[in-house]
């Protein structure tokens, strides 16, 4: 197994995470999947696409054709987490009066920011031995 960082796995993870964030931004919440044709059983289309996208991102890091070492996978997942956290901070409507979950999302965004900082400190430290 190669002990160097493989850039293709990291770039692939970043592209997938940007596409996943775009599903949140560009798919309307009013779209539904009508399973029966009568409107009795519907599912939010945006939720289905987002869950499938999340499964694709996780599957990419587990079963990817680029079999990198553990450090490559950790760096790729840290990059994905950073992009998702930045998208949350930039695009989530924290001050919207109709949004009742703004405070809770803000709290968990702060915790997510702490996790992002801790993960990047781990990669920027000088004691990593691959």
Core attributes:
130 residues, mainly alpha
How is this structure best described in words?
This protein is mainly α. It is built from four helices and two strands; from the N terminus they run H-E-E-H-H-H. The protein has helices at residues 7-26, 45-63, 70-91, 102-124, and strands spanning 32-34, 42-44. 8% of the residues are buried. The mean pLDDT is 88.
Furnish the topology, listing elements before pairings.
Layout: H1 7-26, E1 32-34, E2 42-44, H2 45-63, H3 70-91, H4 102-124
Antiparallel strand pairs: 1-2
Summarize the main sheet. Answer: 2 strands, antiparallel
Our estimate of the beta-strand percent is: under 5%
Cα-atom radius of gyration: 18 Å
Strand order of the largest sheet: 1-2
Distance between the termini: 12 Å
Mean pLDDT: 88
Give the fraction of residues assigned to helices. Answer: 55-70%
| Structural class label | mainly alpha
Sketch the topology as an H/E string, one letter per element.
HEEHHH
State the helix count.
Answer: 4
Number of strands: 2
Overall form? flat
């Amino acid at each position: 197994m190669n002990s160097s960082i493989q850039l293709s796995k990291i770039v692939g993870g970043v592209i997938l995470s940007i596409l996943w964030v775009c599903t949140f931004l560009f798919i309307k919440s009013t779209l539904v999947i009508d399973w029966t044709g009568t409107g009795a059983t519907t599912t939010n289309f945006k939720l289905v696409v987002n869950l499938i996208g999340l499964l694709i991102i996780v599957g990419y890091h587990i079963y990817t054709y680029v079999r990198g070492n553990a450090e490559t996978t950790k760096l790729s997942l840290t990059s994905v987490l950073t992009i998702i956290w930045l998208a949350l901070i930039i695009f989530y409507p924290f001050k919207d009066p109709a949004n009742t979950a703004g405070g809770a999302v803000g709290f968990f965004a702060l915790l997510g920011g702490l996790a992002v900082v801790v993960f990047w400190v781990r990669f920027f430290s000088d004691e990593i031995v691959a």
